[in-house]
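Q: Please design a sequence for this.
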């Protein structure tokens, strides 16, 4: 319940609608509770005395009560819908805002599919709880209390049937809810897995078709879909047991009341109208118990969803802007001072160990290393996408943890290893780098990234629609647009995480030439091709998360065997390099 109470704080301006809705339910219930009394009078007075005027009068009163109950019910539906969907929107917005503040390490705690489920399906469960459960939550207890009270007022002896039947129903419902509660949590996790398979299959649909793995993906989907079907069937199999339990108790109560009430009528201690009105209250009381049971079922499922939503909202933000944070990065110098890093506190090994590096402002740095050597991990520490576990990372001579996060990340432009472009036009994507950029500025950045070559050939140019994931352009074109977008930020540190791997060497050379004009920007280039880094001021070779060697192209070519091996494998038949070349050729 703590999670539900916490989420109710997001009701905000819709709290007033919820209160109005509750009042309307009370009014509606009051009108409905009056009707059985009118029925009893209509039979015992009007029918018995054959007083047509009295019958019509009571009938009109019953009709007015029914119409007023209908009107208040419709008004309640309006305010309940405003409350439910407004509350759901507030919760989704809170979750999305929270996720935007996550660091990479926070995001590592959740699957993307799980976050989507928590923002959609779980919120819908809470909305359904309001739509389907708020009315019976208010109406049920009121009708139960008032119905039982009026039943004792009409005939205390018959009312004792409730004393026997109600606890029996309560015990049955308790065991049903105890069984179903954990099943709802498991059900939502299965929905997560289904969403994960769907998302992965649709995202990689081109790879699936290229490898003719459609049947395999269908089997994988069928497996998780069957699992969801079985989990849902089992859960709702137990959940719907409340209906036969309710019907058994209700009909048992009716039979007992008819038996005892019939005997009382024969003994002239009870009138037929009173028995008819009493049976109406029996139905209302039993319906209220059924409503309360359904509310508990909705609440049980809502608790599972509320717990999952609270996990998103309660996730401790690892990275945040410190108090009195610095709001200016003076230059593009980058320093790693005995830096070590691991992705989880309980990880046995460090991804980076004892890294000490110093990059001067305006330098161009190349980073090479095999797969898994933590090249990307190293540069992600610069804009504080992760924080170093040990040691200090500095930008502009100051610890990155001293900066305002937005200022730091605006000063560090990073073209990620995985190119991401969003639905919309080329212009809209480029303006992520600078929302105020005009056409001249956009074209200048595109020329520096060699993106103008293909933009001038496609219809609409900057206003061309890229579609979802920009799947209508090639990988190399995506990379060039990502480079242009980052250049528009005018960063002091520019990081290329293997960002030219999909472009040809001639285009890469043009991009490198354009970047060399940025003399006040420190450029860090992670690459697989040695041609991408051989002209840099300094080359860093990483191996197993440690700095293996540092030097210029010529220095490493003469002294470092790893660099020599990379050079030989990629530049076979190319330029010779003194003794090292001769030695390699002999080998």
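A: Design:
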């Amino acid at each position: 319940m703590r999670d539900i109470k916490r989420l109710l704080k997001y009701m905000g301006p819709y709290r007033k609608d919820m209160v109005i809705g509750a009042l309307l339910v009370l009014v509606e219930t009051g009108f409905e509770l009056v009707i059985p009394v009118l029925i009893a009078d209509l039979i015992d007075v009007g029918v018995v005395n054959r007083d047509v005027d009295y019958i019509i009068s009571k009938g009109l009163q019953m009709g007015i009560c029914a119409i007023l109950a209908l009107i208040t019910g419709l008004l309640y539906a309006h305010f309940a819908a405003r409350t439910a969907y407004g509350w759901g929107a507030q919760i989704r917005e809170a979750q999305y805002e929270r996720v935007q503040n996550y660091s990479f390490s926070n995001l590592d705690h959740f699957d993307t599919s799980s976050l989507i489920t928590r923002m959609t399906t779980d919120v819908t469960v809470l909305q359904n709880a309001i739509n389907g459960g708020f009315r019976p939550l208010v109406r049920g207890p009121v009708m139960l209390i008032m119905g039982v009270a009026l039943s004792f007022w009409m005939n205390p002896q018959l009312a004792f049937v409730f004393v026997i039947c109600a606890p029996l129903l309560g015990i049955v419902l308790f065991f049903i809810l105890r069984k179903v509660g954990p099943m709802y949590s498991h059900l939502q996790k299965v929905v997560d897995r289904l969403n994960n398979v769907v998302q992965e299959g649709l995202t990689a649909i081109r790879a699936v078709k290229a490898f003719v793995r459609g049947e395999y993906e269908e089997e994988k989907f069928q497996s998780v879909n069957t699992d969801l079907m079985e989990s849902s069937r089992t859960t709702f199999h137990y959940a719907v047991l409340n209906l036969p339990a309710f019907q058994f108790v209700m009909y048992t109560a009716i039979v007992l009341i008819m038996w005892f009430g019939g005997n009382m009528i024969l003994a002239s201690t009870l009138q037929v109208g009173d028995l008819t009105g009493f049976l109406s209250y029996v139905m209302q009381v039993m319906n209220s118990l059924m409503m309360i049971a359904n509310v508990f079922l909705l609440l049980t499922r809502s608790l599972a969803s509320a717990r999952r939503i609270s996990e998103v909202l309660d996730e401790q933000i690892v990275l945040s802007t410190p108090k009195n944070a610095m709001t200016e990065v003076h230059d593009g110098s980058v320093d790693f001072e005995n830096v070590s890093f691991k992705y989880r506190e309980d990880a046995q090994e460090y991804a980076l160990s004892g890294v000490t590096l110093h990059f001067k402002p305006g330098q161009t740095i190349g980073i090479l290393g095999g797969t898994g050597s933590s090249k990307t991990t190293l540069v992600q520490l610069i804009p504080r996408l992760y924080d170093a576990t040990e040691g200090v990372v500095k930008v502009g001579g100051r610890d990155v943890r001293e900066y305002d996060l937005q200022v730091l990340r605006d000063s560090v432009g990073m073209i990620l290893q995985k190119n991401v472009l969003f639905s919309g036009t080329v212009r809209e994507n480029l303006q992520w780098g600078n929302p105020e950029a005009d056409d001249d500025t956009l074209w200048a950045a595109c020329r520096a990234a060699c993106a103008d070559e293909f933009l001038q050939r496609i219809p609409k140019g900057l206003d061309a629609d890229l579609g979802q994931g920009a799947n209508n352009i090639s990988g190399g074109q995506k990379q060039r647009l990502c480079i242009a977008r980052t250049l528009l930020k005018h960063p002091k540190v520019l990081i290329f995480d293997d960002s030219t791997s999909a472009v040809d060497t001639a285009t890469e050379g043009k991009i490198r030439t354009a970047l060399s004009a940025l003399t006040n920007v420190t450029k860090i280039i992670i690459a697989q091709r040695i041609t991408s880094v051989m002209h840099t001021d300094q080359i860093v070779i990483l191996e197993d998360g440690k700095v293996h060697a540092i030097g210029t192209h010529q220095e490493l070519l003469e002294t470092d065997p790893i660099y020599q091996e990379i050079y030989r494998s990629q530049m076979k038949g190319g330029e010779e390099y003194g003794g090292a070349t001769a030695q390699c050729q002999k080998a």
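Q: Thanks. Anything notable?
A: Confidence is low (pLDDT under 50) at residues 573-587. The chain has two domains: 2-314, 334-551.
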